[in-house]
Amino acid sequence: xxxxxxxxxxxxxxxxxxxxxxxxxxxxxxxxxxxxxxxxxxxxxxxxxxxxxxxxxxxxxxxxxxxxxxxxxxxxxxxxxxxxxxxxxxxxxxxxxxxxxxxxxxxxxxxxxxxxxxxxxxxxxxxxxxxxxxxxxxxxxxxxxxxxxxxxxxxxxxxxxxxxxxxxxxxxxxxxxxxxxxxxxxxxxxxxxxxxxxxxxxxxxxxxxxxxxxxxxxxxxxxxxxxxxxxxxxxxxxxxxxxxxxxxxxxxxxxxxxxxxxxxxxxxxxxxxxxxxxxxxxxxxxxxxxxxxxxxxxxxxxxxxxxxxxxxxxxxxxxxxxxxxxxxxxxxxxxxxxxxxxxxxxxxxxxxxxxxxxxxxxxxxxxxxxxxxxxxxxxxxxxxxxxxxxxxxxxxxxxxxxxxxxxxxxxxxxxxxxxxxxxxxxxxxxxxxxxxxxxxxx
Amino acid sequence: xxxxxxxxxxxxxxxxxxxxxxxxxxxxxxxxxxxxxxxxxxxxxxxxxxxxxxxxxxxxxxxxxxxxxxxxxxxxxxxxxxxxxxxxxxxxxxxxxxxxxxxxxxxxxxxxxxxxxxxxxxxxxxxxxxxxxxxxxxxxxxxxxxxxxxxxxxxxxxxxxxxxxxxxxxxxxxxxxxxxxxxxxxxxxxxxxxxxxxxxxxxxxxxxxxxxxxxxxxxxxxxx
Lengths: 442, 224
What we know:
Strand order of the largest sheet of chain B: 2-1-3-4-5
Structural class of chain A: alpha+beta
CATH architecture of the largest domain in chain A: 2-Layer Sandwich
CATH topology of the largest domain in chain B: Rossmann fold
CATH architecture of the largest domain in chain B: 3-Layer(aba) Sandwich
Radius of gyration of chain A: 50 Å
CATH class of the largest domain in chain A: Alpha Beta
Number of strands of chain B: 11
CATH superfamily of the largest domain in chain B: Response regulator
Order of helices and strands of chain A: HHEEHEEEHHHEHEEHEEHHEE
CATH superfamily of the largest domain in chain A: PAS domain
Oligomer: heterodimer
Helix content of chain B: 40-55%
Number of strands of chain A: 12
Radius of gyration of chain B: 17 Å
Number of domains of chain B: 2
Number of domains of chain A: 3
Structural class of chain B: alpha/beta
Strand order of the largest sheet of chain A: 2-1-5-4-3
């Protein structure tokens, strides 16, 4: 943008300068030539008068001319050249063609270059094979033209700079609202649905701003509707579940005195209520997980140990790599759930966790959970983090304990922190789940 | 026998909770609206109140505030709502604990036991703990600031005593959860909101506390 403005200004101002220089030069030269001719004719009249007498002193006639400093007059009479001593060497400046023309009785004028610069030579034929020439110096005019050229060049340069400046200003002015649109879009992508454009600041872009804001409003409304729906569904499911949980507890209390079949059915019922409860909790969590994390400084070692204890594992499972800064700026609730879900996954499908490793390297903080299970086959390593996907081995074992949302939640929580989760083989057998979060959250 | 009042508008939940609590050994009373519950609590005070947030007429938040006006009875919110906003608002209204539906009866029973233990005075280390012009008498359950008595709920009192028994020592939110609420593992918002309520009552300038101070990233401590 700036370059275009500068180039445009340069081209236009250079063309204008060149054109005006040329026109001015032509008109000045033409005017100067006309005045030179007029002056030469006046001089010629004087010379003609002076030569009228018998045996005239030609030099004296020339001296009587008022030629000023720029004009030098010479007379060619009967093959001889006459000039004032001050004007010696002027004859060399008179072109032969002009001499021939004047000798043939025609007056003429021609522009020539002399040793002392450009000049106009005017030749006037006089009676008695006499020719009168005036060499009129254009030195003054050329100085004027040179000054004009310099001035015009400077003006063109200044115009170019001004054009570039205008370009910078215009580019900023035009691009600023676009930059604010881009910034607002980035804000919204990052989860800040409050970001809006102010249509008042850029009147030219009011339409864009209004359309943009309407779009964001719609988006925010739709997201809010989705969230409300998930929350409503979850709430509607929670209330009957509360009744089920309480009623099942009453039944369990009174299971003595009932037969084996009833007790078995009751065990199934309570087990399923428990699973249903987890499913509802996980679903609500998943519905909310697109919201930005509420980050606070968290001692992640302490957090991991606490989660281990709460899941019935030894806190000694947690080890740290050298160079770990154990204070992470994360959403404690979500990191806690991610760790808990990884531990539960190891418990359910990997024969229990054998290590929880915390560390940081290459700008990433990481948490690894190792198990001793059969590992995850390569073809399952990405789908395992999708919703409602259980690994083949889990299905093979007929294990239906989980909600099928645990690892999906881990992936969502990692993504919410700008991180990721993956699974690899643990050296020595088993799976290694690795959750990574960038060290410097943007 | 300990009496529990259940304020819950859903008939089935109310009935099932009442039955389950009775099985756990409580005398359970119930009310379908906040108004009815407040009336019942005035006539026959229960030892603990369970309250739902979404109630017809007076809602759960108002119900908690009304109960708190004349009573330091332990209040547990039993709600289907789990948004931070609701949890914090309910705790700020004066609730002692918050559980999300569906709650297992065993869990609810454990919460009730912890609250009732809190309601009884703990074995004090000394009859009077003095921190500048703040004086705590654990046995009498009294707190004064510059000689002026301060009314604390039992949970706030237990929280203050816990901090006072470790003067100048930082207690993490999890430690406070374990000691005051008897959670092996719980929601730290409970601690933060209760600390906030405590500050409202014992700090001269609750927004810039000088007695109960936050140690960033670690927890809270009571200044000697």
